[in-house]
Design brief:
The protein is α+β, with helices and mostly antiparallel strands. It has three domains: 2-116, Trigger factor ribosome-binding domain (Alpha-Beta Plaits, 2-Layer Sandwich), CATH 3.30.70.1050; 155-258, Chitinase A, domain 3 (Roll), CATH 3.10.50.30; 275-448, no CATH class. 50% of the residues lie in helices and 19% in strands. The protein contains 14 helices and eleven strands. The strands form three sheets. Strands 6, 7, 8, 9 and 10 form a five-stranded antiparallel β-sheet that branches. A four-stranded antiparallel β-sheet has the order 1-2-4-3. A hairpin with a 2-residue loop joins strand 1 and strand 2 (12-19). It is extended, with a radius of gyration of 34 Å. It starts with a strand and ends with a helix. The model has no long low-confidence stretch (mean pLDDT 91).
């Protein structure tokens, strides 16, 4: 088997492969002999069908299959031996007028397009400055989380008058312009969570009212979209989309989660015996919030690095080749036009993957099985400590970690999480970071951009 490579440009190449009879003849002959031994045809004893007849029947399909297997293996070997950094997989080049005489040809020539990875270097220089955002955990934010935890440990009550955040039980009834029930119209017993109503003026109509009260409202203003409205009213999406009338909601009950009282019993439920005062409880909540926002800041920092490196390096890719490969590799039939519409997102993700691979190789960033097991054990310990559960012994901890990592999806997530932490550590050591204090609200606005 003979290979020749033609460099089209920096990102594209053509590899031609000449397959000679010696490359496949013995394998094909062996397979055909196997067929002959097993053949059972009328007029011949089992295993005694003439070789010529077997060859006439099976030679071509066996030859095609074996040459394809041979090509796949040898092209892969060629790429590895020549250290070619390819993107996707080689794509066969077949001219419109090309024909192969499988019955009579002894030598064959095939050509493949290769998409090549761009050549580049990544400079992680301290000259590059990045903002590192430190989210301020203000009192109002602590208050909110303290209240959320208290609600989580609270109890359900049924007050007489509604407040914002309540869950209302009642009956929806379709009404006409005069407020009268529509005969045969929508009628549904349902629940209405006031928190889901985005329009503040509409929400006010449901606050401060008691059981038995009724509110007539445009259903489009209490649900964000037609699927939500259809679920709320117990109708199909088509019916919801065509509904022109208003609905009347008559309250039959009010449900409210009353926060737990901030006392010793409550503190013990949340943090065990370590916390026994309101001040200490708020400190622990504050500490958890700070840890949470450190993780968010790390994520934001990494994202900023990714965007800048992708933009600054501006890697060229073999776009035409990659689009063809995506069409060929897709499990479901897809057109070149469909691939082109999504190609920008794919190409940007591929650029970062190439950059990340280059950085990880240059800095020997990798994650071993042993490391991810230890990492999983650490996460389990923290989880147990958070919920005040007794610490596991080493054997129990190992068994639990193995069960967690036995889930392929979870295992991959933890590998990626640990790899990301190593990458961020490298970035923080390589670039110049400028600490910026920021409020929670402004941080999330910035992140959304």
């Amino acid at each position: 088997m003979n290979f020749t490579k033609q460099q089209v440009d920096d990102l594209n190449a053509i590899v031609k492969v000449k397959v000679q009879e010696d490359d496949y003849a013995s394998t094909v002959e062996k397979i055909l002999k196997g067929y002959q031994k097993k053949a059972n045809m009328p007029g011949f004893r089992p295993g005694k069908v003439p070789a010529g007849m077997i060859k006439k029947m099976y030679y071509k399909p066996v030859l095609v299959e074996e040459i394809n297997k041979l090509l796949n293996q040898k092209i892969s070997d060629y790429i590895q031996e020549n250290k070619l950094e390819v993107l996707g997989q080689p794509l066969p080049r077949v001219a419109d007028d090309s024909t192969i005489d499988w019955e009579n040809q002894k030598e064959f020539e095939f050509a493949y397009d290769l998409g090549l990875s761009p050549k580049f270097e990544v400079d992680l220089s301290p000259k590059e400055k990045f903002n590192y955002y430190l989210v301020k955990v203000e009192d109002k934010l602590t208050d909110k989380y303290v209240n959320d935890i208290a609600k989580r440990y609270g109890k359900l009550i049924n007050p007489e008058v509604s407040e914002s955040g309540d869950l209302l039980f009642g009956d929806f009834q379709e009404v006409d312009a005069s407020g009268q029930n529509v005969e045969g119209g929508i009628s549904k017993t349902s629940t209405l969570a006031l928190d889901i109503i985005k329009d503040e003026e509409i929400k006010k109509q449901f606050v401060g009212i008691s059981k038995g009260a009724a509110v007539i409202i445009d259903p489009n203003k209490i649900a964000e979209n037609s699927p939500d409205m259809a679920s709320l009213l117990g109708v199909t999406q088509d019916v919801a989309q065509q509904l022109n009338n208003q609905v009347k909601f008559t309250i039959t009950n009010i449900s409210r989660m009353e926060p737990a009282e901030l006392n010793i019993d409550f503190f013990k439920k949340v943090y065990g015996d370590e916390v026994n005062t309101v001040e200490h409880f708020r400190e622990r909540v504050n500490e958890e919030l700070n840890n949470m926002y450190v993780a968010e800041s790390e994520r934001k920092f990494k994202n900023d690095v990714v965007l800048r490196l992708v933009k600054n390096l501006n890697l060229n890719l073999p776009d035409a080749f990659l689009k063809r490969w995506l069409v060929a590799a897709n499990e479901k039939p897809i057109t070149l036009e469909q691939v082109s519409s999504e190609y920008n997102n794919y190409s940007q993700a591929l650029r970062w993957q190439l950059i990340e691979n280059k950085i990880s190789r240059a800095n020997q960033i990798n994650v071993s099985n042993e490391e991810v097991v230890d990492y999983t054990k650490t996460l389990i310990r923290k989880q147990f400590a958070r919920f005040n559960q007794n610490e596991m012994n080493e054997q129990e901890l190992s068994n639990t970690a193995q069960r967690v990592l036995g889930d392929e999806k979870e295992s991959r997530r933890l590998f990626e999480k640990l790899f990301d932490e190593k990458l961020i550590t490298l970035f923080k050591a390589s670039f110049t970071l400028v600490d910026k204090e920021i409020s929670e609200e402004d941080f999330y606005k910035l992140s959304a951009e």
